[in-house]
Amino acid sequence: MIDPRLVLVLSGVLFALGAAGVLLRRGAISILMCVELMLNAANLAFITFSRLRGGPEAQIYVFFVMTLAAAEAAAGLAIVIALFRLRGTTDVDEISLLKW
Amino acid sequence: MQVFAFYVLTILTLASALVVVTHRNPVVSAVALAFNLVSIAGFYILLGAQFIGLLQVIVYAGAIMVLILFVIMLLNLSEEVQPHPAGTFQRVLAPAATLVFAIVLGRALWRGAPSSFPPAAEGFGTAAVLGRELFTRYYYPFEVISLLLVVAMVGAVLLAKRKLT
User: Fold this and answer.
1) What percent of chain B has pLDDT over 90?
2) Potential cystine with B127: which of B30, B51, B105, B120 (Cβ 3.0-4.6 Å)?
3) How many angstroms separate the most distant Cα atoms in chain B?
């Protein structure tokens, strides 16, 4: 049988990898994809906890997180398209109007 | 058998996640992400959550990935118009910070969990159990989340549409 601790550690490593991508990547779409990676890592931990506890609650949360991810992808990508029209680039270093 | 599947899925998941984070071409990143999402669906099914595993394939690896790939193709992001890479400072600090973060998080999770799964409850992870739960105890959150989807849809159309002059 699988050790639940290994699954949890895997989800932690995946979350850290996604966070590294958010820090390292400069393309707006790449950053969005790394956020998806982090959401999935959290979902994996939720499912493991659900299996440990035996109840369906955590799976309902995963369901909600998936819906949120869909909403986030739609709105985020629309913002990327609008930015690309305005600036001709998706490089987040070029879009620093609010930075001081 | 289960342990073997677990290790194969672990290797697939970690390898595709590394490609997502490190590859310069966003199309390759997106395909690797789709691969990653499917292998995580494999984990869900391995852990007994069949309904969520199938949802993961349909909604995540299907709909959301098509949306991301569609936008990449629409903006025609080839490698020449790639954003410039991160600076040296970032290239050293970000992996170091990530490593520390992964160790702290992994250690906390390792120490907080038991070493074996209890036997699965009757009907664990089936659509029937989840559906009953969703339309009784979680009825209002379910309605609110559908409202959120409508708001996101309207917002996406408003943001992405061409300005009429």
Assistant:
1) 54
2) B51
3) 64
